[in-house]
Structures are given as C-alpha cells and as structure tokens.
Amino acid sequence: MLRWLLFEAAKTSARGCAPGHRYYADVKERYDANRAALSQARRIVRQAVHILTALGDDAFTITPQPQTSTMVMR
Length: 74
Prior knowledge:
By secondary structure, this protein is mostly helical. It is 58% helix and 0% strand. The N and C termini lie far apart (46 Å). 11% of the residues are buried.
C-alpha cells in the first residue's frame, strides 16, 4: 500500500509545475516514465527520512491546535 501511495505521489512530478519535475523529466528521458516515477518515489522517501530525523522525537509530538469558533458572526 505504501509503495502504491509513493508511486502515485511521484507521478504528480510529471506535471510541469511540480517541484520535482526537472528530476522526473531527466530520468524519463534516460529511461522511461515508470522508472522516473519509481526514482522520484525513492527521492520522496529519502526527503521524508531526513525531515523526520531532523525533528527527532518532536515528529511524534501532538501539538494542540488553537480553538476556533464555528459560529458565523453577522
């Protein structure tokens, strides 16, 4: 399930406005679209690991959200 999720997230790099489009396009040019999506998925995992490592135990800390009123004022 996680592999599929990462693959689908990586496929969004096929769009020209995506942050990882340049990398995706380079790999696609050398190989094919499937290989490019898998490479981009691995790249997403590496970035996530670095972010979670930098956060340390704070990555698992639940921070309370500020209470907002659901009532509409007129």
